[in-house]
Amino acid sequence: MDRRWLPIAVVAVVLAASFVPGGGGGGTVGPVGVDKLLHVLGYAALAAASLFAIRSRTLRTMLAVLVVVTVFGGAVELLQGFVPGRTVSGLDLVADAVGAVAGVAAWRLFASPAWVDDARS
After folding, report:
1. What pTM value is reported for the model?
2. What is the mean pLDDT of residues 21-49?
3. What PANTHER family does this protein's entry cite (predicted)?
4. What are the backbone dihedrals phi and psi of residue 73, each rounded to the nearest 5 degrees, phi first?
5. pLDDT at 118 over 60
6. Does residue 64 contact residue 4 with C-beta atoms inside 8 Å?
7. Residue 74 contacts residue 96 (beta carbons within 8 Å)
8. How far apart are CA 31 and CA 51, in angstroms?
9. H/E stretch holding 28
10. Which residues contact 25 (CB under 8 A, 6 or more apart)?
11. In the chain, what are the domain boundaries?
12. For a Cys-Cys bond, which of 12, 19, 88, 116 suits 81, CB 3.0-4.6 Å?
């Protein structure tokens, strides 16, 4: 599979999970709700997949991905207000941003040089 399709696949999964009417994770894992954990994991995956597709470890690219993924999370949160049984949540947006930071950090720490095109990293 062409690596450029990976973030598109992650976006599809995030959107499908975000717009299920009446959805939302229940229960807690330690001090956090399952839904917040799912937000962090989903947006971390989206950020890391985006960087994998872009094949860059430059600070500029990583910051751009962080901003775009967080703004995407904000847009999804706003649109959830139109889905029956779903609500807009500022805490969900915070979880999305935390996930984006985690995904970018994981990419920076663990990405193999073989996965990266630029030599400026």
Report:
1. 0.86
2. 82
3. DOMAIN PROTEIN, PUTATIVE (AFU_ORTHOLOGUE AFUA_3G10980)-RELATED (PTHR28008:SF1)
4. -60, -40
5. no
6. no
7. yes
8. 30
9. strand 28-29
10. 33, 34, 35, 36, 37, 38
11. 5-19+30-110
12. 88
Take residue 119 and report the two structure tokens written for it.
């030599």
| Position 108, amino acid | R
Sorted by sequence, the CB contacts under 8 Å of residue 63 that are 6+ apart come out as none
Model pLDDT for residues 62-85, shown as the tens digit of each residue = 999 999 999 999 999 999 999 998
Instruction: Tell me the three state secondary structure of residue 32.
Output: strand
Residue 117 sits at φ, ψ, to 5 deg, of: -90, -35
Instruction: Compute the residue count for the chain.
Output: 121
Amino acid identity of residue 99, one-letter, is G
DSSP-assigned states of every residue in 71-98: HHHHHHHHHHTTSTT----HHHHHHHHH
pLDDT score at 121: 41
Sign of the dihedral defined by the CA atoms of residues 71, 34, 99, 94, in that order? positive
Residues near 14 by beta carbon (within 8 Å), at least 6 away in sequence: 42, 43, 46, 76
Confidence tier at 49 by pLDDT (50, 70, 90): very high
